[in-house]
Amino acid sequence: MTTGDTTPHDAPSGGEPLLEVRGIEVIYDGAILAVADVSLTVAPGEIVALLGANGAGKSTTLKAISGLVVADRALVSRGEIRFRGEDITGIAPNLLAARGIVHVLEGRHVFGHLTVEENLRTGAFLRRLGRREIEHDLEEIYGYFPRLRTKRKTPAGLTSGGEQQMLAIGRALLTRPELVLLDEPSMGLAPIIVEEIFEIVTTLNRSKGTSFLVAEQNIAVSLRHAHRGYVVDSGRVALAASARELLDRGDLHEIYLGVANAVA
Amino acid sequence: MNLFLETLIGGLLAGTMYSLVAIGFVLIYKASGVFNFAQGSILLFAALTFVTLLEQGLPFAAALAVTILILILGAILIERTVLRPLANRSPMTLFMATLGLSYVVEGAAQGLMGAQVHALDLGIEDVPIFIGDVLISQFDLVAAATAVALALVLALLFNNTRIGISLRAVADDTRAALSIGINLNRIWQIVWAVAGIVGLVAGMLWGARQGIQFSLSLVVLKALPVLIIGGFTSIGGAIVGGLIVGAAENLAETYVGPYIGGGITPWFPYFLAIAFLYIRPAGLFGERTLERV
Ligand SMILES: Nc1ncnc2c1ncn2[C@@H]1O[C@H](COP(=O)(O)OP(=O)(O)OP(=O)(O)O)[C@@H](O)[C@H]1O
Ligand SMILES: [Mg+2]
Which residues line ligand 1 (CB under 6 A)? Predict the structure, then answer.
């Protein structure tokens, strides 16, 4: 993997967005309002950062898009979510995976008792490939994540945090997604590993044109690799701008933490 | 020495039956984290359907095929009407649902097919045979061989096939499985159907022994200690647990029974299970969470 050159390629411009979230509200257990009003878009081939403090509603927004809200007894009670122009609000997550949206959950969520390679294989089940095609796709993923190849026979639960994050991403990529929802890939990882993971994201984005919506608290790293960013606060979008502009502001921390404090 | 060997072997052979019943529980527990109280009723329903079809004059193979078909349809029905609406509820809610389900299935079985005892002749002669100078029941031998064959097929099915890896993935992390496109509803349908078929085989073998009747559904009570000993999440554990319970209760009946007036078999497995709970709470093969510290 090349180091040094970490600027993303030019933001794709014009045309229909791949993902469009319009004014969604998400409620857990019919009572807890987690997302009040979030709108955002992701263009084809774009990397978008979703920033915000703890409890801002980043993960909930991603779960609303991937359909995984249902597994947490939550509901998108207002607004709509469109993917390639079609309304996908409320569609089951496994069907959305087949349509090209894959969610890499916060906290990695690998299948601990399955080996690294079995974990990767599960990502390919969706496409009902033949043996040879699966081998081919596995090789490609091992190309991006050489560390995984050396651990292919190890139960995933026994690999390191960084390896698990790479495995979760690799497994998701085997579904051949158009859009990857990546929830806090930096969580609990050493800076050098975080950098490595974001570089791979950028590489994938460039070579395959895969779009990424990345929820992060790590402003610096995520904005260096993203084209655009949104700042969410208390379930609302507080700010939306290009990554460059957001980085140049230098007051992002105060903005989202400040507003949160004012509300509290 | 011969008495000991005969008792031990007889117990082990009977134990394979317990294993078979326990495997049905393990499959469902792995896929949905619920202790399926209805497994005994499903076993009764399956055996009763099979014997009724036989009595209606269907040939053996046809009766078996039709019964399996009905079990598959039943699994789909249960998934749609019970599991899907209750998905994401607490395990206790699901357990209560299976409790209710057990009465529905039992009621349906007896309502449709009557409550009398049906004799089932599988054409296996129950004659004792000698191996060396150890006496063994031929029926037990055939039953055990069937159970072992079925367990092997299941182990193959659930180890390296797509379905097997998907099932283990779901058992590890349901959300992650959904996120990469695994169809949870389909997995549940398959698992309930397979558990039903395992129940059918167990019900046929037990039923051929003691007649197919209501008390068959009580084998659930035999499976519980097996699961505690073997662990709720391991097919291998269910097999070993069944063998341990079978052998131990038979040995206890023969060697301890006379001193306390017999009647040990109903409670001894529970005694054993509680002892195991002290030593290994997750069971012999139960999965502890794999985590690096
Ligand atoms: N499963 C749940 N049940 C009930 N409430 C929840 C659940 N998950 C999240 N919430 C609530 O929804 C709000 C938004 O949480 P969310 O997880 O989306 O935030 P986040 O931005 O991802 O935060 P973090 O950076 O800590 O991951 C919080 O107030 C949280 O308490
Ligand atoms: Mg989060």
Answer: A 28-29, 32, 34, 52, 54-60, 72, 106, 217
Residue A40: count other Cβ atoms within 10 Å of its Cβ.
21
On chain B, the residues whose CB falls within 8 A of the CB of A157 are 289-292
User: Reduced to 3 DSSP states, what percent helix, strand and coil does chain A have, rounded to the nearest 5?
Assistant: 40, 25, 35
B contact residues 167-186, partner A, Cβ 8 Å cutoff: 168-169, 171-184
Q: What is the topology classification, in CATH, of domain A19-100+177-261? A: Rossmann fold (3.40.50)
Positions of E strands within chain B: 128-131, 134-137
- In angstroms, what is the span from residue A213 Cα to ligand 1's centroid? 17
Annotated domain spans of chain A: 19-100+177-261
CA-based radius of gyration for chain B: 19
For the entire predicted model, the pTM comes to 0.87
pLDDT in tens, A60-111: 999 999 999 999 999 999 999 999 999 999 999 999 999 999 999 999 899 9
| Residue A10 CA to its chain's centroid (Å) | 20
What is the average pLDDT across A9-15?
58
When scoring B180, B188, B190, B289 by the number of chain A Cβ atoms within 10 A, the one with the most, hence best to mutate, is B180
Q: What is each CA distance from A102 to A62, A172, A174, B35, in whole angstroms?
A: 10, 6, 10, 31
pLDDT tens track for A134-148: 999 999 999 999 999
What's the pLDDT tens digit per position in B54-92? 999 999 999 999 999 999 999 999 999 998 888 878 888
Out of B179, B181, B184, name the one closest to residue A125 (CB). Answer: B181
Tokens of B267: 């409670």
DSSP letter (8 states) at residue B89: S
- CA end-to-end span of chain B: 50
